[in-house]
Amino acid sequence: MNDKTILIVEDEQAIADSIAFALGKEGFVPRHVTLGEQALAAARDQPPALVILDVGLPDISGLDVCRRLRQFSEAPVIFLTARSDEIDRIVGLEIGADDYVTKPFSPRELVARVRVILRRAGAPAPLAAAPAAASGKTFELRAAEARILFAGHALDLTRYEYLLLKTLVEHPGHVLSRAQLMDRVWCDAPDTLDRTVDAHIKSLRAKLRAIDDSADPIQTHRGMGYSLQPGA
To answer: Which residue of 12, 108, 127, 161 has the lowest C-beta tally within 10 Å?
Structure first.
């Protein structure tokens, strides 16, 4: 894998060119394809550090590309999606995308998100246990590394999964409404819907149970919101 190669999967040439230009200025090596099948072949041929993937491709859906990509690659994925495609965004995050950017967008903002995701994905394990900003019996928050450990295992989280779980860990026992969570976690995505919070909670629970199948530290309070069990 080339740690500077970014695969751009976008059928609109003008958008792809603006992304490639912004990435190139920051030292990345952009590689552009226009079709989903081309993207899968390119990812196998030369595994990228990250994939920028448009949801609405001419041949197959970007969602299907992501599903198939996850069968052989763990490269982070950022979806490009139309502002109205809320359902696509929810499904995309559930199937393994790390982030999404709605059109129209700033190429500079997109590159900034690329850097954050790559830094988090490639952060080396610490030589010794770092002081935790907050910790409990099963969770350890390492804010300086943008990492959360559960039962001693580092969780592989997307950007919003990390921010959501971080918020819950920092407020154990507090019931936080969906509106409060959206304000804290999705402050840069004002068009986010309640269902996005629910989708991320579902994804977090699955990742926690993959480590401990009896774990259920995130509590649902019907009509109110979510909380993390005190002492978790």
So the answer is: 127
